[in-house]
Fold this protein.
Amino acid sequence: MRVVVGISGGIAAYKAALAIRELVLAGHDVHVVPTAAALRFIGRPTLEALSRNPVSDEVFDDVAAVRHVALGQSADLIVVLPATANTIAKIAAGLADDLLGTTILASRAPLVIAPAMHTEMWEQAATQANIRTLAERGITIVGPVAGQLTGDDSGVGRMAEPTDVVAAALSAVSDASAPRPLASTTVVVSAGGTREPIDPVRFLGNRSSGAMGVALAAAARDAGAAVTLVGANLHVPAPAGVELVEVETTAQLRDAMLARAGADVIVMAAAVADYRVDGVADEKRTKEAWGEAPTLTLALNPDILHELAQQPRASVVVGFGAETEPDDAALLQRGRDKLARKGADLLVVNRVGHDAGFGAVDTRVQVLDADGVVADASGSKTSVARAIIDTVALRLAAQQKEQP
Ligand code: CTP
């Protein structure tokens, strides 16, 4: 998920580093937006290295990408830690005089703040009124807690522990996804890329990380489905609450999918190797045996999506088509052809090579059915996956209505 971490100018700013690290290690795409004052407490290189993304506090950087709103629009979650009295007042008033302000105003994502300040500032009537305003608007406020403050004093005003802020922020997102359009359904998602052995130590493979399929499995889970993820050599962790079936080859993926062909929804997001090696060697091939210019003979793999679509079923079968075609009309035509050839109900046309710059959209898809485009979504993989799952849920509901 895309998380914007806002940092305001308090001494607790250094603790934001721990939260950023925790979010990145959990697999999130983290964009840090410090205020100018925050950068006096913690250095930009630290934030860039930990978040693995460029960091700016400037509204007028990268104007062409409309970054002052793009970051907020594409965020799935915004967490501000520490939130100073000044930043809290600005959020309450809806001020947008810096990048953090514009990002928060331009976002519909859940907002979580972790106040940190001296006790007197926290107890001040103005601060308390602002906090009440934010709470009434549904903003999650974590802490502050009582404890040692920056000087010799202690009392209420210390920032909650970064790990507690992260936990509260992540659960704010799952609480926010209230509608569960796939309740009491079963969903099977294939993800990753299959590998075809050459000999016991070598294989032919592809670069697919499985991130899109994993995001789809998480979105289906959040929509209330019982989800099985058939993962082929995933580079990313499987989401919690999802059954994981690990496979390596196309043949194993095919067996795992056909065994589950009765599911309500089947999504083939895996990059399936079109060919396998004909005549896999039982022992490691040596250079001596292979010679100077070896050739591999390949055999065509079965088309799993096509087979799944031919099964007697009551399910929605979804395929993917990653295309580099730059022309819009030609791209859609290719998608329509693939949909018809595969016999799937829906085809997600994945426009690879789209602008993936800082603050800009990183994925764009169009979902086709036999009549044309039924959904168009862009943004983080999490938000795109949600849009795809919403479309699938609508299709399933329509199909179930048609059946007696
Ligand atoms: N797919 C499959 N079995 C295969 C190849 C692909 O189930 N042997 C599925 C993929 O999981 C994806 C869809 O088919 O959902 C489209 O994959 P793609 O590689 O784009 O399709 P191909 O038929 O291989 O078409 P192209 O010739 O354009 O690569």
Summary: The pocket of cytidine-5'-triphosphate is lined by residues 268, 270, 272, 274, 301, 303-305, 319-321, 342 (CB under 6 Å). The radius of gyration is 25 Å. The first helix runs from residue 16 to 25.
